[in-house]
Design brief:
Elements (H helix, E strand, L loop, with lengths): L1 E2 L18 E2 L9 E14 L6 E4 L8 H11 L7 E4 L20 E3 L5 E3 L2 H12 L3 E6 L38 H19 L1 H4 L3 E4 L12 H18 L4 E7 L4 H14 L5 E7 L8 E2 L10 E2 L2 H16 L9 E7 L21 H19 L4 E4 L1 E2 L24 H10 L4 E7 L19 E8 L5 E8 L11 E8 L6 E8 L6 H7 L8 H9 L4 E9 L6 E7 L3 E9 L2
Parallel strand pairs: 3-20, 4-5, 4-16, 5-8, 8-9, 9-10, 10-11, 11-14, 14-15
Antiparallel strand pairs: 1-12, 2-13, 3-17, 6-7, 17-18, 18-19, 19-24, 20-23, 21-22, 21-24
């Protein structure tokens, strides 16, 4: 068995306190009991819906029937809609989508060297997003082929059936050779969007320059990028005076690049309405294993929520160094447990977590911990984007970072977003005596997050109380046959009686993957098998709804949680 180089696309060279992935520790202690207290009368303010954002590389799959259908599912999960961030809108090409590549094919030069624009593909992309009830996070990237500088010829590749030229291989990452022409492209793009979708819709959009310029996505100097931002922000604002513009979307190890960017925008008084950056919970090494199909990982590794929170906090504190930016939101517009999105269990068996109940529970936990981090930091995270969509041509449960697998089957991961969508408008006080706090970041010594039982609770305008209660550990290999006994004690209930509904995501609930494995993991399922798989793919009730009558505004619910699992408890006041 041989391995590739230990380099992952999409992450910087993080030399900080955390390893590239969390090793497995079979000796780590389990949590077998927990007490949870929820006070429905203790309001903690508006619940920031930081999870209402997705993004992906494969821009040309946005407008396929499957892409449109999936976008529609997200549109139904939010009153305001999700922000959707696709890559490659300015890249040149035919519009044929493949993993980790795509193109909007907007910019062209005629025979006389005059610029003209073709919005055929981008119209399909943005139409699909807007028509599904969502909004665009416009990633203004990358360099069109006709704007690639002459010195990009230094990027040598061997042409092949899948690498047509050095452009597809990365020449699109060079700075545009003509910044004025780039600015005109930005203004034309903004004007076209305004004309097509109207001011009310476009006013909801975010306009962001580039992606991860601190690594190979940018083949110029930091100073060249900073200047490109000045040109870009000015061009957007010429057309859209109230547009929200920002950047620079650095990786989790991009603190120095971010600091230089903010120093530039501050000195130049550039428009800046948000600051964006990324974090990844793991970069498995080797990222691809060349061996027998479905073989084991060379080392058992897992994501680290601690690593992600540490990177978010580090980059937020860089923003905090600039007092004029304290009020700007942080947009973590790639916020993922692993990288890259298109690698699967066939590349490295550690990616299996992306098929299982582990991942939705991890995501619920992560969103709550980011909210907790907001409570301790000056700069507030406004969006934490899952860089996930779907992949054409997959096998069933390929194990990529996606919401769907083959046959349009929903993976358990999508149910995390269904569960989060059921939370109400206001966060209420909730605590667990078996929770792991974000304040422990400085004391964890680079270790991943240990096992915990924790809770996130809310109240709606109609008095409905909803709580997510989970049991999770970062180590995907550290399982437990014993369920945790959890007592949920709720006070502050002001209705005479409630209907209690209980939904669950675990190995046997809300989990099409388990059903697929249980029938032999077929890659050519029969119609009956596929129907059985899809029947169990949504968010499922764990038990029948029942009536609860509080005593002096208090009630109690007992849960038994396997590892990993998340329960959604909803107390609906009865008329």
């Amino acid at each position: 068995m041989t391995f590739t180089a230990e380099v992952n696309p999409g992450v910087g060279l993080n030399k900080g306190s955390f390893p590239h992935a969390a090793p497995s520790d079979p000796s780590a202690p389990h949590v077998h009991a927990a007490e949870i207290a929820i006070d429905a009368a203790a309001d903690r303010g508006a619940l920031a819906r930081i999870w209402e954002s997705i993004g992906y590389d494969e821009i040309n799959w946005t407008y396929t029937p499957t892409g449109r259908s999936l976008l529609g599912r997200f549109g139904e999960l939010s009153d305001k809609g999700f922000h959707v961030r696709p890559h490659y809108v300015f890249c040149s090409g035919t519009g044929f989508g493949i993993p980790h590549w795509g193109n909007g094919n907007v910019f062209h030069l005629d025979a006389d060297g005059n610029a003209f624009y073709d919005f055929t593909i981008t119209d399909q992309v943005y139409d699909a997003i807007v028509e599904s009830g969502n909004h665009v996070l416009v990633e203004l990237a990358f360099t069109p082929r006709d704007l690639v500088p002459d010195h990009a010829a230094e990027l040598e590749v061997v042409p092949s059936p899948t690498v047509y030229s050095n452009y597809e291989a990365g020449a699109w990452g060079y700075p545009p050779k003509d910044y004025a022409a780039w600015g005109d492209l930005i203004a034309a793009h903004a004007q076209h969007c305004l004309d097509r979708y109207g001011a009310d819709e476009v006013d909801t959009w975010l306009w962001e320059l580039w992606n991860e310029p601190d690594i190979f996505y940018w083949r110029g100097t930091p100073e060249e990028f900073y200047e490109l931002y000045s040109v870009t922000a000015a061009a957007v604002r010429r057309v859209l005076p109230t547009a929200k513009v920002g950047g620079p979307a650095v990786t989790g190890s991009g603190a120095e690049f971010l600091r230089g960017f903010l120093a530039h925008t501050s000195a130049r008084k550039d428009p800046l309405d948000f600051v964006s950056f990324h974090t990844k919970g793991s970069a498995f090494r080797p990222w691809r294993v060349y061996g027998p199909t479905g073989g084991p990982a060379p080392e058992q590794q897992s994501p680290s929520a601690h690593k992600m929170l540490f990177e978010i906090r580090t980059l937020s504190r860089v923003i905090e160094e600039f007092p004029e930016y304290h009020g700007l939101p942080a947009i973590v517009d790639e916020c993922d447990a692993g990288v890259p999105a298109h690698y699967s269990v066939y590349d490295n068996a550690n990616f299996r977590f992306q098929n299982t109940e582990y991942y939705p529970v991890f995501q619920v936990k992560l969103m709550k911990k980011i909210l907790d981090l907001n409570a301790t930091e000056t700069v507030q995270v406004e969006q934490a984007t899952s860089w996930s969509f779907y992949f054409e041509g997959e096998r069933y449960f390929e194990g990529t970072r996606a919401f769907l697998t083959a046959g349009g089957v929903e993976k358990p991961f999508l149910n995390a977003y269904r569960a989060l969508a059921r939370l109400g408008e206001r966060r209420i006080e909730a605590a667990s005596d078996a929770a792991h706090p974000v304040t422990a970041l400085d004391d964890c010594g680079g270790a991943s997050m240990p096992e915990e039982v924790d809770v996130l609770a809310s109240r709606g305008a109609d008095g409905t109380v909803a709580a997510l209660v989970w049991r999770h550990i970062d180590d995907q290999y550290h399982t437990d046959d014993t369920e945790a006994a959890v007592n949920v004690n709720i006070t502050g209930l002001d209705a005479a009686s409630y209907t209690l509904r209980h939904y669950r995501i675990d190995a046997t609930h809300s989990n099409a993957h388990t059903i697929w494995e249980g029938i032999g993991s077929p890659q050519l399922p029969t119609d009956d098998q596929l129907a059985a798989i899809k029947e169990r793919q949504g968010l499922e009730e764990f038990e029948a709804a029942r009536e609860v009558t509080p005593a002096d505004g208090a009630a109690q619910v007992g849960l038994r949680l396997p590892l990993p699992a998340v329960s959604l408890l909803i107390w609906e006041p009865k008329a």
